[in-house]
Write a structure and sequence with these properties.
alpha/beta; about 35% helix; 8-stranded parallel β-barrel; single chain; 3-stranded antiparallel β-sheet; globular; TIM Barrel; about 20% strand
């Protein structure tokens, strides 16, 4: 059995061929797709965050809206770039969104992906400290976030406040109990997966890995997940962690599917260069349901993870993406034991 959700990058473009022509279109359709996914029996609605791009960038209003319109599915991000975040303000926003959804928030965070602009986090008022690089900046912000999410008091109260204070140091409000255990880190390497376990965060294996051993993408991810679990056990955490992988999966069940994704039958892993280093990208899966089942059964990372996020082509609109999700839940998931 697996948790199966969708992951939307939230693209929009002013093109007559796009169902999302504006940011308004993407935001409203994201909510509608989450509602449709819940009705179809999916388990989660996740959204990518990118700044300075025609994509979703401010996740918490969207997550709160999805939480208010749904009742069961998890809502989350994959991932928020912590280089850009004020961790205290983020903790307040996340707490509010989690309370609105009655504890369904699964918050994916990370160092982030390659940016649209040069050192964009500096425009937001953040910069690495002396001796830090941008990855250190993200981890420093993350450490603060994880600490304040514990709900412990740390701020000295005003002796003459506007409103009466409880005794002792004050914490951030609203506080949502349990949210600290639902923070995920998007890890692009095996070493980062081990660090993630040490910090007590769930593992969100990246859609691209910034290392290449020559092994297929799914095997490298499976190794990453195994190393995460070993490091988690060594750290002595009491709870059971979660792991996720993302995949583009398209059952070809009608003429629309074949027109859009028939060429992806021949998809293969790709190796490229990101930020001056080697990166490995996973392939897309497209084919008739029987062929998909056979191919997906060999994906070692999907087998190792408890959560599968389906990357959806959001610019094709709500109805088509709901059709893709339904096809996977109906024609593929049962045959693989995911349902």
């Amino acid at each position: 059995m697996k948790n199966i959700g969708f992951l939307s990058f939230g693209h929009w473009t002013d093109s007559p061929h796009s169902a999302t022509r504006s940011a308004r279109d993407v935001l409203h359709q994201s909510i509608d797709l989450a509602v449709a996914a819940e009705e179809l029996g999916a388990d989660g609605a996740y959204f990518r965050v990118h700044h300075f791009a025609n994509q979703l960038a401010s996740p918490f209003p969207l997550l709160a809206a999805v939480g208010a319109r749904t009742s069961r599915i998890e809502i989350g991000t994959g991932v928020i770039d912590m280089r850009y975040e004020n961790p205290l303000y983020m903790a307040e926003d996340a707490g509010a969104a989690d309370l609105i959804s009655d504890g369904r928030l699964q918050l994916g965070i990370s160092r982030g992906s390659p940016e649209q602009v040069i050192e964009g986090y500096r425009y937001f008022g953040y910069a690495p400290a002396e001796g830090e690089d941008h990855a250190d900046l993200a981890r420093r912000h993350t450490a603060v976030l994880l600490d304040v999410l514990k709900g412990e008091g740390f701020a000295q109260p005003n002796p003459r406040p506007m409103f009466p204070n409880p005794p002792g140091l004050l914490r951030l409000e609203p506080h949502s109990p349990g949210l600290r255990d639902r923070i995920w880190w998007g890890a692009g390497t095996r070493a980062t997966a081990e660090w993630t376990a040490e910090q007590g965060m769930n593992l969100m294996s990246s859609t691209l890995l910034t290392e290449d051993t020559g092994a297929p993408f799914h095997q490298l991810q499976a190794e990453q997940i195994a190393m995460f679990h070993k490091a988690w056990e060594s750290a002595g955490h009491e709870r059971t962690p979660r792991t996720s992988v993302s995949r583009s999966i398209f059952p070809l069940v009608d003429d629309r599917d074949r027109a859009y994704f028939g060429a992806d039958r021949a998809s293969r892993d790709q190796v490229g260069h990101i930020d001056g280093g080697i990166a490995r990208f996973g392939k897309s899966y497209a084919g008739e349901p029987d062929a998909l089942v056979e191919a997906l059964a060999k994906d070692e990372a999907i087998a190792a993870a408890d959560t599968l996020l389906l990357t959806v082509p959001n610019q094709l609109g709500v109805d088509y993406n709901a059709h893709v999700i339904e096809s996977i839940l109906t024609h593929v998931a049962p045959a693989l034991g995911w349902r």
